[in-house]
Design a protein that fits this description.
alpha/beta; Nucleotidyltransferase, domain 5; 3 domains; five-stranded mixed sheet; 14% strand; elongated
Length: 292
C-alpha cells in the first residue's frame, strides 16, 4: 500500500509510516500508536490538594509561591497551573488587574550589606491605626514596628532608637531613607530653614545620614511600601504584631531575595552581615535588573 495513503488515513507523516513498517518487519509485532496530545506533567500524590491548602493557610501565598515551596522543600514536581487550579476551586484566587500583561524590566538598587541602610515610613491601616516600621534595605528584615493611634516624630525616634541599640549587626546604621512627611523633616523648610526638627536632630546626634525620597516618587521608598502591602494582607491572620513580624521575617520566603532557596529576610540578614574582615562599610548600592 502507498505510504502516502496510510499517512493521510492516520494523520501522521510518511516518514512515521516507514518507521512503523520497519519496526513490524524487524520485530513481527504490530506497533501501537500513542493517543495524540501532550503527556501529563506529572503524577501527583493523592494528598496534593491538602498540602496546597495547608501552605495557603500557613503562608497566605499564591500559586507561584506554593508551587515553588513544594518543589524546593518537598521535592514534589508540581506545575504552577495545577496549584492555581486547586486554589481557584477553593475560591482562593482573585484577579489582579495591575498584573495583566508583560511588564517591562525595571531596576532597583540595594545595599551590599545588611544593617547599613534602613527605610522608614508611616502607614494608615484598614483598622484606623497608624503604623511605622524600620526595614533593612539589603535583607528586607523589619527590625521593629509600632501600631499606634497617631503618627509623630517622637514615636518614629523611639522606634529607630530601639533598632539602633538592639539589632544584631557588627556595623551601625549609617542611613535612614524616608519621605518628606512632617514626622521626619521640617515641613516649612523653605519659609523657616532654621527651624529645628527632632527626628533630624536625632539622626545628626547619631551620625546617621538622612536620605529623602524624591517628591511625587514613592518608588524611592518602594521596599517599605511593598512591605506595608504584605502587612495589610497578612497582619490580621495573627493575634499580635509580634507574631506577624516573626512570620514575615522568619517563615515567609521573600521573592526579592534568594528565591531559589526560599530565603527569608532573617536568613538574608545573616548572610549579608559584614564580617569583621570587611572593615568599614559604605553606602554604595548594587544595581539589580528585574524582569517583568
Amino acid at each position: 500500500m502507498d505510504t502516502g495513503l496510510v499517512a493521510e488515513q492516520f494523520e501522521i507523516s510518511r516518514r512515521r509510516v516507514q518507521q512503523l513498517a520497519k519496526t513490524y518487519r524487524e520485530s513481527g509485532e504490530i506497533p501501537r500508536l500513542e493517543t495524540p496530545g501532550r503527556r501529563p506533567y506529572a503524577d501527583y500524590p493523592d494528598n496534593l490538594e491538602d498540602r496546597v491548602l495547608d501552605l495557603r493557610q500557613r503562608l497566605g501565598a499564591g500559586a507561584v509561591v506554593i508551587a515553588h515551596v513544594l518543589r524546593v522543600r518537598e521535592g514534589l514536581s508540581v506545575a504552577n497551573n495545577r496549584v492555581h487550579a486547586i486554589l481557584q476551586e477553593h475560591n482562593h484566587v482573585s484577579e489582579n488587574p495591575t498584573k495583566q500583561g508583560r511588564k517591562r524590566p525595571w531596576v532597583r538598587f540595594e545595599r551590599e550589606y545588611s544593617g547599613v541602610s534602613v527605610h522608614m515610613d508611616w502607614y494608615h491601616n484598614d483598622r484606623g491605626q497608624w503604623c511605622v516600621a524600620v526595614e533593612d534595605d539589603a535583607s528586607r528584615r523589619v527590625f521593629d514596628m509600632i501600631e499606634t493611634d497617631a503618627s509623630s516624630a517622637s514615636k518614629a525616634i523611639e522606634l529607630l532608637a530601639n533598632a539602633v541599640e538592639e539589632f544584631d549587626s557588627p556595623v551601625s546604621i549609617l542611613e535612614v531613607i524616608t519621605d518628606h512627611g512632617s514626622e521626619f523633616v521640617n515641613p516649612h523648610q523653605e519659609d523657616h530653614p532654621d527651624r529645628d526638627h527632632e527626628f533630624e536632630r536625632f539622626l545628626h546626634k547619631n551620625d546617621i545620614e538622612h536620605t529623602l525620597c524624591k517628591v511625587g516618587r514613592p518608588q524611592s521608598n518602594g521596599k517599605i511600601e511593598r512591605f506595608f502591602q504584605t502587612y495589610e494582607k497578612h497582619r490580621w491572620r495573627f493575634r499580635t504584631l509580634s507574631e506577624f513580624l516573626t512570620f514575615y521575617n522568619e517563615e515567609r520566603p521573600h521573592m526579592s531575595l534568594n528565591w531559589v532557596n526560599l530565603e527569608t529576610p532573617a536568613e538574608a540578614f545573616g548572610r549579608l552581615v559584614p564580617s569583621p574582615a570587611t572593615g568599614g562599610c559604605d553606602l554604595l548600592a548594587t544595581e539589580v535588573t528585574v524582569d517583568g
